[in-house]
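Try this one yourself first.
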């Protein structure tokens, strides 16, 4: 209507200027005659007709401009005449042909078509399409390139036959190129996705799988096509993993923001840790349509990070001199965190080298730990005994079927242990220290990564054991006499002071014995220091036999010894001392040229209430030792105690 007004207003103005008879149209109607009114109405109708004609011409021009801009054209395929006719420069707009080109025969038209489209189009002319049918065809442009035409057909019938096909043609080259580029990009995307190490999946908003690449087959046994249409829960994910995935997807749906998290998924006995990234995908209207999930397996890196942190913790325990059992149990826990469902144990070589003793492995049943407290070493003694014998890794993937376990199958079977592999532990100089074993409750074999992990753990165990051995050796050097294995003077005094303090709290009696071998210098001078050392060691063994486990005994230097007897009164201490003296006097040490006998003198004293230091008690016992020496040796003396009856020998 606005266009009509814009056309009418200038036309009416020109008519008014040209014909004064139109003046009454704008003058006072009361002053005009009837004849003048009729004449004015006639001119108005003429002006209106002219205006409508001009408006129609304008619309026609605009329609042509629209056809030109949209690259639309009308073509008529006249079947009886076998000719193609274009309307209003259609062939020029569509195919760049000269403006005077209005029609051509079918043969020329078909020659312009792409060879792949030509047979189909010829068939279409012979069998006209149904009304409003659509088709697409490639036609050679006048400049030489191929132009895509999108055609909408309309049939004209006469006498029961199609006489003419009218084709509304639109140039669709840009769209087809765009579609082809989209297809190429999609193919490239599919190629990248299918060859990606990551699992790439697409889910709808109800979390049903719409697409998933073949990488999933490396981690899950479900066939690729079986994933489609299923939610993670329906695909067999655990309850914990399914709930976490659903929670993260709900967050994405609510916020339209990408999510990043980690999940643990299991395939049989194998655990996989995935870093999952969720991305929103939108449709052309900008609405959330699907969720793209990119899942990267990070098991090795995460386990490596965790293992490194746990190894550092173990090494700190080793450096901090934590108790060995605590350190070994921590190593077992570290390995179990790397091998879910695995139960680890550490067995250490016995002192005689003929058996293994259980040292760590709290995940194993308590009754089973007791059963393997001592395991013989042999060629067919379970996994650990056999591993220690052959000094190599022994893998038993099914205990019930293995001949190595046949000897103890009835004892092991109640614990429902089905697989066990054991790796020997060696010191830095390749001495056998023990074995490290991993148990499972289902038959299975270790992966190469698990075996490598077991070997790695044995190195850490060896470090702990060797450090513990070095600490024990240093402790022995600092606290024990190297010749006899008894406490040295410093350690004896320190332990005696502690016992003295305990005795004050408990108000129990406490006695000490000072002992000195008689004529020991003569034994060294006559028989040599080697024999003298033998005598010293022999006397130390007699002391161990005569004293209780709760008693303290030490070598104070040379041939001088001391013993502390907690909860022992003077009379009882005298009896102990006499038994020891008699055992020494009765002993005979074989030599190359005969036998050797020796004696000992002993002084005994009981702690007094006013004595606060062990040196005070030892000093009084030493005085009694001096008296025993002065009275002829080979005897026991004590203050305020009559000498016990004895038989003098030699």
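Now uncover the answer:
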């Amino acid at each position: 209507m606005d266009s009509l007004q814009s056309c009418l207003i200038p036309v009416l103005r020109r008519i008014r200027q040209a014909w004064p008879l139109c003046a009454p149209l704008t003058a006072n109607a009361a002053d005009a005659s009837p004849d003048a009114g009729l004449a004015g109405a006639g001119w108005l109708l003429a002006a209106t007709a002219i205006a409508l004609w001009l408006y129609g011409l304008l619309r026609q021009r605009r329609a042509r401009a629209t056809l030109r801009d949209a690259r639309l054209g009308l073509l008529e395929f006249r079947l009886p005449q076998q000719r193609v006719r274009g309307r209003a420069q259609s062939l020029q707009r569509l195919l760049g042909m000269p403006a005077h080109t209005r029609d051509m025969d079918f043969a020329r038209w078909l020659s312009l078509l792409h060879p792949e489209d030509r047979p189909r189009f010829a068939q279409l002319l012979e069998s006209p399409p149904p009304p409003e049918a659509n088709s697409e065809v490639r036609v050679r442009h006048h400049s030489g390139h191929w132009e895509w035409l999108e055609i909408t057909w309309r049939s004209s019938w006469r006498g029961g036959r199609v006489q003419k096909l009218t084709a509304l043609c639109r140039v669709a080259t840009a769209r087809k190129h765009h579609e082809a580029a989209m297809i190429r990009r999609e193919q490239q995307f599919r190629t990248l996705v299918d060859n990606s190490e990551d699992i790439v999946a697409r889910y709808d908003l109800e979390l049903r799988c719409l697409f998933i690449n073949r990488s999933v087959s490396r981690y899950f046994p479900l066939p690729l096509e079986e994933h489609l249409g299923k939610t993670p829960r329906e695909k067999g994910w655990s309850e914990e993993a399914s709930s976490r995935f659903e929670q993260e997807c709900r967050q994405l749906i609510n916020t339209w923001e990408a999510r990043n998290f980690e999940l643990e998924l299991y395939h049989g006995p194998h655990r996989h840790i995935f870093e999952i990234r969720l991305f929103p995908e939108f449709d052309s209207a900008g609405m959330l349509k699907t969720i793209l999930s990119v899942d990267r397996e990070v098991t090795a890196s995460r386990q490596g990070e965790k293992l490194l942190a746990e190894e550092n913790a173990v090494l700190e325990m080793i450096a901090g001199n934590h108790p060995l059992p605590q350190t070994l149990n921590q190593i077992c826990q570290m390995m179990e965190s790397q091998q879910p469902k695995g139960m680890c144990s550490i067995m250490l070589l016995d002192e005689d080298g003929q058996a293994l003793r259980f040292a760590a492995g709290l995940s194993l049943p308590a009754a089973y730990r007791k059963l393997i407290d001592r395991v013989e070493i042999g060629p067919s003694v379970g996994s650990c005994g056999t591993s220690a014998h052959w000094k190599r890794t022994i893998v038993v993937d099914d205990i019930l079927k293995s001949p190595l376990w046949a000897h103890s199958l009835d004892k092991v079977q109640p614990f429902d242990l089905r697989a066990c592999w054991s790796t020997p532990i060696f010191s830095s100089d390749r001495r056998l220290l023990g074995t490290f074993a991993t148990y499972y409750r289902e038959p299975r074999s270790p992966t190469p990564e698990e075996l490598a992990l077991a070997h790695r753990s044995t190195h850490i165990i060896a470090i702990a054991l060797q450090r513990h051995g070095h600490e024990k050796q240093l402790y022995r050097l600092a606290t024990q006499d190297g010749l006899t294995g008894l406490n040295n003077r410093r350690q004896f005094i320190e332990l005696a002071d502690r016992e003295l303090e305990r005795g004050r709290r408990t108000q129990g009696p406490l006695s000490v014995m000072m002992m000195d071998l008689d004529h020991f210098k003569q034994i060294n001078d006559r028989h040599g220091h080697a024999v003298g050392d033998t005598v010293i060691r022999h006397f130390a063994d007699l002391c161990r036999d005569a004293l209780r486990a709760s008693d303290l005994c030490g070598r104070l230097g040379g041939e001088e010894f001391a013993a502390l007897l907690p909860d022992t009164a003077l009379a009882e201490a005298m009896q102990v001392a006499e038994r020891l003296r008699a055992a020494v006097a009765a002993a005979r040490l074989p030599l190359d040229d005969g036998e050797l006998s020796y004696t000992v003198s002993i002084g005994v004293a009981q702690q007094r209430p006013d004595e606060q230091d062990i040196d005070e008690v030892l000093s009084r016992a030493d005085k009694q030792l001096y008296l025993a020496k002065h009275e002829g040796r080979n005897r026991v003396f004590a203050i305020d105690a009559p000498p016990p009856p004895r038989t003098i020998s030699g």
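Discussion: The CA atoms of residues 329 and 360 lie 5 Å apart. The mean pLDDT is 87.
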